[in-house]
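Supplementary Text 2. Reproducibility record for the structural model of the 242-residue chain.

All settings were left at their defaults, and a single model was retained for analysis rather than an ensemble. We include the record here because the model underlies the residue-level annotations in Supplementary Table 4.
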Amino acid sequence: MQTTLPYPLLDVPAEASHRVALLRDVPPGELLIHEIYLSVQGESTFAGLPCVFVRTSVCDSRCRWCDTPHAFNQGTRMTRADVLAKALSFGCPLVEITGGEPLLQADVFALMTELCDAGKTVLLETSGAHDVTVVDSRVHVIMDLKCPDSGESHRNRWANLDALKPSDQIKFVIASRADWDWTASVVRKQRLDSRFTCLVSCVFSSVRPVELVGWLLESGLHRVRMQLQMHKYIWEPTTRGV
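Retained model, structure tokens:
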């Protein structure tokens, strides 16, 4: 059974509703923001480019390997206008909306449109548990498909695959050989590598990059791209704001 919370477009399972409690008092026109900062994009096909990160607070998932749990319950309420102004103030052409889970907050959709209208290349990092059909078509969606070891694979919204554009990207985070075997099976069954850019990465410290390279090469999935979380090699892996 699912319970619908008082936010447009949002469905959260009843067992996870307590995780989004902080959002219940955020009025229309405002967002709960964890941090906004300028860094180098560490993942996706945009890796290596300077990028402004707008990290929203709160997530309804609890992936076992999550590296940003500090965003679950820490944040500052900001008007959408102030968030937009702050993101634009860096003068950077690339902006990523991340979290937490950005699609939990209704004003994120308007924010992405406003950033696109301002001429920015906009990336959205989302868990894949929420509907992406209403995301501005100019936004580059980078959507997770959660592997079994995340503990959240039951939340994958498979219908999103029919809503994504060829320019969007699907990300798999691999914590074990079992995760890799599941990923390879899904990619083949859904023909994902011929429909989108498919990215695979290691759970930092759980799978060695050389292992994932071996699995990828053995699989024959030659259009799937391995990536490293570049920022975790540039800075200490637990460093925030990078």
